[in-house]
Amino acid sequence: MVFDYADRIFTIGEELEEALRFRPGGRALQLRVGVADAVPKAIAYLLLESALAMEDPIRIVCREGKLDVLLADLAIHRLDIIIADSPMPPNVDVRGYHHLLGECDTSFFATAELARRYKKGFPQSLDGAPFLMPGEDAAVRPRLLRWFEKERIRPQIAGEFDDGALLLAFGDAGAGIFAAPAAIAAQIKKQYGLVEIGKTDAVREQFYAISVERRLTHPAVLAIQSAARDNLIVGSSRAGN
User: LysR substrate-binding domain: from which residue to which, for each copy (predicted)?
Assistant: First the structure.
């Protein structure tokens, strides 16, 4: 009975906290979001900017880090959601739910100089080409490797990067060709002046919202979900642990 009362008190406390954070009256809503470091910054912004555009004022508290660290913060309610490039890991002792926001094709980018050499004959032109590989934490990495193997492409791996922003910086400097979600191709070409040398639908990039809720209810999170429908091909949701 004591444990039942304790659970109930804890639940009431959570409900009160939620009510205070969502309460109208001019005070900004707060969205505490974790962004897995494998998620491209432009994708994170593409989704989060919709929350900033809400009619009600909102304050975003954004944290970036490894997915396992962010999940620990989610479990103790330091975060409302996590934006990740993979679903809930099966071996994590955190009760949570992943919601597939959407997915898109993968595009390949290079400087104009590299594009002149490797754009023609894509994707076979990537064989032997300098390539910048995402790190082991990136969900797209094994998909890229399987696609290379299927197409019998053996690029020259010029570097591996856990940090997507660092990978992009090396790509912008001409160190190699790199892959990125097709959903942000326009931003990459405009901001960095890079060339899209090809695209494949055989390597899909997926993005998830991970929360402790089976159903998403935070107004800002619902805005993010709506933005994903506009910018990505939307999928479904399913439970994690």
Answer: 26-229
Distances (CA, A) of 27 to 30, 54, 153, 158: 9, 14, 55, 49
pTM of the model: 0.81
pLDDT in tens, 51-94: 888 878 889 999 999 999 999 999 999 999 999 999 988 877 78
Supply angle C-alpha 158, 160, 166, rounded to 5: 100
Which contiguous run of DSSP H or E holds residue 26? none
Cis bond before residue 123 (omega within 30° of 0): yes
In sequence order, the β-bridge partners of residue 65 are 36
- Residue in the structure block whose two tokens are 């899209």: 196
Structurally, the chain folds into a number of domains equal to 2
For all residues of the chain together, what is the average pLDDT? Answer: 85
Q: Six-digit token pair at 234?
A: 């939307």
Mean pLDDT of 184-206: 96
- Is 185's pLDDT higher than 60? yes
DSSP string, 95-125: --EEEEEEEEEEEEEE-HHHHHHHSTTTTGG
194 with 218, same domain: the answer is: no
* pLDDT for res 26: 54
